[in-house]
Each structure stands twice: as C-alpha cells, then as structure tokens.
C-alpha cells in the first residue's frame, strides 16, 4: 500500500477550521485539505494530504476537452461512541475502478483508495457532524491531465479527494419528478453504468426544463423504446406496487447504487418483498391512478431516501402519489440511517472504521 505523505501546513489548516452553521446543507462547506495522487509512467507515483486549493491545469489538458474523468460519492458517519466509520467504501472503490476501466483510465488499488479516503476522514474527524443523518461527504475523482489536443487516452492523471461536512440533500419535502420522454442520457453499450461527468452533463438540459416546470428531479427512460424507467440524474428509483417494492433491474445504462443495494438488502431482511425487474413508466402511472402504486422514492448517497410526491408527464399531467410520505420508504430510510450512524447493528462489512489519529 502507498503511504500518504502528510503535509504539516494541511494539518495546521484543518485543525483550526470550524463550521458554525446549524444548516449545513449539501456540499456547501469543504474541508481545507485534500488528498492528491499523481499517475505517470504507468503507475501511481505518490499520495499527498495537502491544503485545499485551486488546481493548475494546462488549458490543453485532455479532461477539459474530452471529458476523461470519473468520480465517486461516499459518506463517513460519527457513531454514538464518537468513533467514525465509512459506509460500504469497498463498493465505491470497486465502482471507481469499473468506471476507470470504461473510461480508459488507470485503476487505483482498492487498498490505496480506501487508505486515502480513510486518511482524509481521520484528519477531518472534528468536522464530522453529530446529528443523525449528517455526515462527512467524500468526493474522490480522477481527471486526465496529459497535455495535447489529440483525441486519445491520457497517460497522466490526477486523483483527488475533497471532503464536505454535509446535511441532507433535499430540504425535506417530497420530490416532484419530471418524466423525460424525449432526451436520452445514455445508450446501451455506452457509459451509463460509469460514474463519469458525461452522464451528468447530458442530464443538465433536462434538469433546467424540470426546474422550470416546478419539479425537482428528471426521470430517465431507456433510450431504445423510451418506455422503461432507468433512474434519476443522480439517484436510483423505487416504487411500491401492490405492496411489493419494485426497482428497475440493473443494466449498463443504470448506475449500480450502493444505497439501492443497501435498501434492497434491508427490505429483504425486514421481510418486505422486493422485485428487480423491467418497470415501464406506463405501468407505474397506471398503478398510481388505480391506487395500486401507493408510494415511490428515490435513493442515493447524497439523498439517502426521499419520497416522491408526484410524476409530471410530457403533456404536464400530474400524477400524485397517494402516500407522499411513503410508509415503506420511510421505514427503510430510518433503518438505513440508524445503521449508518451506528445506532443499529450493521450487517457484516457495512461499516468501515477509520483509525483515530489524536493529532
Ligand atoms: C446516476 C446516479 N444514479 C444513482 C446514484 C445512487 O448511487 P449511490 O447510492 O451509490 O450514491 C447516483 C449517485 O451516486 C447517481 O449519480
């Protein structure tokens, strides 16, 4: 495993840093330190913990033109005994490398990825909020830094982790979903399963439309038949139909969410029936109208689990969910939050303790 070099000025900066804001919000504050690793000559050269600051990039760096970049999103929680724990970080490490392979980028050995995440978390321990549902959000990412305008994979990369003490992503209201029937975000054989900027860039035009129509989230349908639900721009989707929890089967156009997997596992442990299958938007809307789809929710690391209030179709017809504070979704959310916060026994391997530095 590669050692992370700790720069004393980074330690001094983070030690002095405090946040006095009861409304942390999501991604509003960033810790004044970051992990940085350089890849060159076919290997990861070094890992450093540095003061947070702007990057100096040559204007011809490949990431700026061809979008060769990937990222992750994960959380670190404070437990009642004051110890801190990452939530299922191995899953993020594996997904990061899956994204890296698809984007012709170098993998990071899982132990180096975990050690880097653990190191920045340890130095941010005093910034990890105590309140239930709050956490330290980690954003590891990798960019192509080779200079040159030729379209080919970079040979040089930068891996960075920044950390943001965060509260909830949504203010608390149920989410209004806009069904995108025209634009597509990614196609079979493409990059949908990878966590790479291009998927999000492709979603932003619809996001603007979604907001203009008074909704909060865009729902993406499959790009071939424009019929089957895939996911939101940054979250996975669940509906409760005939008392069963249903979610679209994973394909190469859907991100394999850590929260999605955890919700399925928690639901099954609670003896709630879960179906992973193709789920058409028309089936869901019909079931909403017939009162058989009583609730629906989105889930993701940032959003945790948020109930859906309504779906808006292309013709602006609104389909309201009967239970916009969904009982089942909230039950699963509470269980997940309790596990993450160390207030309920976690299944084997779900929490990953971060060593205490006492620095
Ligand atoms: C497109 C997309 N789908 C789903 C998710 C949920 O994934 P996870 O639960 O791993 O955060 C995210 C967030 O990371 C996302 O960006």
UniProtKB/TrEMBL annotation:
Swiss-Prot/TrEMBL keywords: Amino-acid biosynthesis, Aminotransferase, Branched-chain amino acid biosynthesis, Pyridoxal phosphate, Transferase
Domain of life assignment: Bacteria
Reactions this protein catalyses: L-isoleucine + 2-oxoglutarate = (S)-3-methyl-2-oxopentanoate + L-glutamate; L-leucine + 2-oxoglutarate = 4-methyl-2-oxopentanoate + L-glutamate; L-valine + 2-oxoglutarate = 3-methyl-2-oxobutanoate + L-glutamate
Gene Ontology process terms (BP): amino acid biosynthetic process; branched-chain amino acid biosynthetic process
UniProt pathway annotation: Amino-acid biosynthesis; L-valine biosynthesis; L-valine from pyruvate: step 4/4; Amino-acid biosynthesis; L-leucine biosynthesis; L-leucine from 3-methyl-2-oxobutanoate: step 4/4; Amino-acid biosynthesis; L-isoleucine biosynthesis; L-isoleucine from 2-oxobutanoate: step 4/4
GO molecular function, one term: branched-chain-amino-acid transaminase activity
Pfam families listed in its UniProt record: Aminotran_4
Modification N6-(pyridoxal phosphate)lysine, positions: 195
Necessary cofactors: pyridoxal 5'-phosphate
Enzyme Commission identifier(s): 2.6.1.42
PROSITE patterns, per the entry: AA_TRANSFER_CLASS_4 (PS00770)
Stated family: Belongs to the class-IV pyridoxal-phosphate-dependent aminotransferase family.
General function of this protein: Acts on leucine, isoleucine and valine.
Protein name: Branched-chain-amino-acid aminotransferase
Organism: Peredibacter starrii
């Amino acid at each position: 495993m590669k050692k992370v070099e700790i720069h004393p000025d980074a330690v001094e900066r983070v030690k002095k840093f405090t946040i006095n804001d009861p409304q942390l919000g999501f991604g509003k504050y960033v810790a004044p330190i970051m992990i940085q690793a350089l890849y060159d000559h076919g290997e990861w050269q070094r890992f450093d913990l540095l003061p947070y600051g702007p990057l100096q990039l040559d204007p011809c760096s490949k990431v700026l033109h061809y979008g060769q970049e990937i990222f992750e999103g994960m959380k670190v929680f404070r437990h009642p005994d004051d110890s801190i724990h990452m939530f299922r970080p191995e899953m993020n490490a594996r997904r990061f490398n899956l994204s890296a392979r698809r984007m012709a980028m170098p993998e990071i050995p899982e132990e180096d990825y975990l050690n880097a995440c653990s190191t920045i978390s340890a130095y941010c321990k005093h910034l990890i909020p105590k309140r239930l549902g709050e956490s330290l959000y980690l954003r590891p990412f990798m960019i192509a830094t080779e200079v040159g305008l030729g379209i080919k994979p970079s040979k040089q990369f930068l891996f960075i982790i920044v950390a943001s003490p965060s509260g909830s992503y949504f203010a608390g209201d149920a989410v209004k979903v806009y069904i995108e029937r025209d634009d597509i975000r990614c196609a079979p054989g493409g990059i949908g399963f990878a966590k790479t900027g291009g998927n999000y860039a492709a979603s932003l035009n619809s996001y603007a439309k979604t907001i203009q129509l008074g909704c909060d989230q865009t729902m993406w349908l499959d790009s071939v038949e424009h019929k089957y639900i895939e996911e939101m721009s940054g979250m996975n989707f669940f509906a409760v139909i005939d008392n069963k929890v249903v979610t679209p089967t994973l394909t190469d156009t859907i991100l394999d969410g850590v929260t999605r997997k955890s919700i399925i596992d928690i639901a099954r442990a609670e003896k709630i029936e879960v179906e992973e299958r193709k789920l058409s938007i028309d089936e869901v809307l019909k079931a909403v109208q017939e009162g058989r789809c009583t609730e629906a929710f989105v889930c993701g690391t940032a959003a945790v689990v948020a109930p859906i209030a309504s779906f808006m179709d292309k013709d602006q017809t609104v389909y309201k969910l009967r239970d916009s504070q969904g009982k089942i979704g909230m039950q699963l959310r509470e269980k997940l939050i309790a596990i993450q916060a160390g207030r309920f026994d976690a299944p084997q391997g779900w929490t990953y303790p971060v060593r205490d530095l006492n620095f």
